[in-house]
Amino acid sequence: MLATLVIVCAAGLIGAAAQPAAVDQEPNANATSYATAADPMILELDARLAPQGLMVAHLVIPARPGPFTLVYPKWIPGEHGPTGPLGDLADLRISADGNALTWSRDPVDMYAFHVDVPVGVSHLNVTFNVIENGPEVMATRNISVVNWNRTLLYQNDTNSHDVYVKPSIILPAGWDYGTALPDARRTADRVDFGTVTLAMLVDSPLDCGRYYRHVPLWASGSSYAQLDMFADRPQDLDAPADILAAYKRVVPQALAMYGARHWYNYHFLLTLSDAIGFEGIEHHQSSDNRGPHDFMTNPQWQLASGDLLTHEFSHSWNGKYRRPYDLTTPNFQIPMQTDLLWVYEGLNEYLGQLISFRAGIRDPKLFPEQVAEAYAYLDNEPGRAYEPLIDTATGAPFLYQARSNYPSLRRTAGDFYTEGELIWLDADTIIRAQTGGRKSLDDFLRAYAGPPNTGPVTVTYTRQDIEHVLASVVPYDWHDFFQRRVYEIALHPPTDELARAGWRLVYTSTPNKFEENPVEKEINAWYSLGLSLSMNGEIRDVRYGSPAWRAGLSPGMKVVAVNGEAFDNDVLTYALTRAQHTTAPIDLLTSQNDHYQTFAVNYHGGPRYPHLVRIPGRADMLAKIAAPLAP
Ligand SMILES: [Zn+2]
Questions:
Q1: Domain map of the chain by residue range?
Q2: What is the CA(342)–ligand 1 centre distance, in A?
Q3: How far is the CA of 459 from the centre of ligand 1 (A)?
Q4: Which of 73, 107, 431, 604 has its Cβ near the most Cβ atoms within 10 Å?
Q5: At the topology level of CATH, where does 528-607 sit?
Q6: 311 alpha carbon to ligand 1 midpoint, in Å?
Q7: Are 242 and 284 spatial neighbours (Cβ–Cβ below 8 Å)?
Q8: pTM of the model
């Protein structure tokens, strides 16, 4: 059914500034786009003020006379929520044929802007400032991350696959750029790109910067993959040869795993900046990766977060090419439903980890240590007593934003990633066990997102589709499997996959290599006292019911001293170790809002960190899973 946009104009205001009432219907994608391939929307992004945290968007938008509504993208693919940063839009001006037009914001949908288009006008000129460092830091003096959804308005209720845009960017003098946008033509500091759909534009971010390095990673015929790095300091681009060699194995390992690709060329965009911080957003033919300044030069970062680029790359297949039906929306105003993120992100968490080990970014021998860390957190998470995993996925748009006190009691958006890894490891071990090692999850991946090669298209799925594809690989009650692991409450995650793989979980006094990583700047006393602390003692979380919680400690406090000694990790570890041989409590002196208080924590179990150890006599399936595939 073709519905048209209904806007009720207030009586008596004809000829005056447009003052429409609220859009009176849910957002849809049924309107005919006036921006076509022959007459596309023009977007010229002037990024010359990026070092000052501003860009200026100049748009020419095809329109028709009468009431007309423009919208700012709200639900952003890959961000899984209504995260379009409306506060970044400033100084909005709309004109036609040189005459300024009055616009008004919709009183209910604040992402919509109404304007009355005069008779005879076919194009609107729209200009606004893009504030780059509003909710998130997107630019420094030397780098700018361009997410095009922040730089445009588009015709309301159109399908973003039917809206055409011709983008261009004016770079700060001497800067270079990286993007998957096609048909680039550079003239001095101006780059013009070919006409693309609005969907593809928003799916093709651009990084630019003063200090850059482009590293070819892979090529086959006319297709290629490359790493585009942008740093605040030139020396941070000096990634050592062994780290780059591992990244050159990423594409062959992913192709061996999936058996085909759904991109023509692929750009790993990567910023190296402490100011911009840590982020990863997937796209069909690129990924928007943001790491700290020494991400590519400090091997500790590769151990801690060496799955950043591999996770986002795997999303090109799992998430962009194959995507949950109810997460796939025809434009950026229609709400997404996120319940199947336990596949989209959960499966991808497993695959991103595997590619990082198989490519050798991390030593495959450390895979059991990584699994132990993932398992132990979930096994000590009080919130799971009342909340099934599915609720963390369904509530993801809210949970991604909720990062304050007691995350372990609320459960977090991280849960469907971490537990997803274990669920899909479980599925992998079931397939391997049921087929005597002849098949693995890789067979599922080839059936799910494999051949033939295609360009960037999307094929949707439901939970039932996933269960059918799995059953085609090996007959099993996959519906019941997911029902138990995802949809029902379980205080402890099952250990089936660990046992099947020949391993079991233990706690020892030796820190887990993935938890105690110095670059993560956290102190983990979660499995002993029940505390997660920053390096300088700020309490980030207290495990409900733990010794620290029973003593009265809470997030927001800062531990200043342990048994009378100034706090640091060594002092805390010494106190934990010594308490094993005494009945005296551990005294923690804390400060909070200028108030000092000592808490006596009764804990005598010593330092505790999770690890996996082999079950004698059982085959080591984890070694097989983490081993590189034959390209
Ligand atoms: Zn992801």
A1: 41-208, 528-607
A2: 10
A3: 18
A4: 73
A5: Pdz3 Domain (2.30.42)
A6: 6
A7: no
A8: 0.95
